[in-house]
Amino acid sequence: MHSDFDSVLISRERIEARISELAARLDADYGDKNPLFICILKGSVFFFTDLLKALTIPAEIDFMAVSSYGDGDTTSGYVKIIKDLGRPIAGRHVVIVEDLIDTGTTLSHLCELLKTRDPASLRLCTLMDKPERRLVDVTVDYCGFQIPDEFVVGYGLDYAERYRNLPEVYILSRKVYEK
Ligand code: IMP
Ligand code: MG
Predict the structure, then answer these.
(1) For residue range 54-93, what is the model confidence (pLDDT) as tens digits?
(2) Which of 6, 22, 2, 24 is nearest to 14 (CA)?
(3) Which atom of ligand 1 is nearest to the CA of 133?
(4) What are the φ/ψ torsions at residue 54 (nearest 5 degrees)?
(5) Residue 6 C-alpha from the chain's centroid
(6) What pLDDT shows up at residue 75?
């Protein structure tokens, strides 16, 4: 393993297996609703495409980019829209697909904003959740993995834009961000 990483936290096999389970639940919950899945760029892009391919129901997709983080690993406590959705969501059954919920700041701001656009329903699906780090309450409807308070990279997640294209989730060594 590369010396930037302490260990593999979630292997390819576990990611795949968990995505099948989440997709089965989403299939059952949204069968007749033509849901709109929103990919929160860039971190959730790999999770999003794998999850969407695992669904068997009709679904539409859109993309949004928001930022509450700079180049490092600490939250700045607000959310900035970098790229907005392409179409209105009024009357739609919307599922936000996120990579990781940490303090909850990003997602709570984003949910408040999207609710003002009158979706028929709004739910949240995340690959990972760090419940120990939560500062703002958010309801996570579909969660892949609850993980410990470690900084993770890979499968879409970055540290200063690096490591996103790794196929599994790794724990980043502290020596990378404490130097
Ligand atoms: P929150 O607003 O504190 O919940 O932060 C959420 C966002 O911060 C996530 O969607 C990630 O993009 C990023 N983030 C939080 N923890 C990590 C991590 O361990 N690795 C990479 N990105 C992270
Ligand atoms: Mg994110």
Answers:
(1) 999 999 999 999 986 554 555 555 678 999 999 999 999 9
(2) 22
(3) 3
(4) -85, -15
(5) 22
(6) 52
Average pLDDT of 104-118? 93
Atom 17 of ligand 1, nearest CA residue: 151
Pick the closest to residue 50 from 135, 168, 163 (CA basis): 168
CA atoms within 13 A on the CB side of 72: 7
CA–centroid distance, 105 to ligand 1, in Å, is 10
Of all protein residues, whose CA lies closest to atom 20 belonging to ligand 1?
A: 152
In order of their start, the domains of the chain are 12-147 (3.40.50.2020)
**Which residues form the catalytic set?**
102
Residue 174 CA neighbour count, 13 Å, CB half: 2
- Residue 90, Cα to own-chain centre: how many angstroms? 22
Ramachandran angles phi, psi of 48, nearest 5°: -60, -50
Residue from 102, 150, 164 to probe ligand 1 pocket by mutation (most atoms less than 8 Å from CB): 102
Residue nearest to atom 13 of ligand 1 (CA): 100
Can you give the pTM of this predicted structure? 0.94
Distance CA 34, CA 173 (A): 42
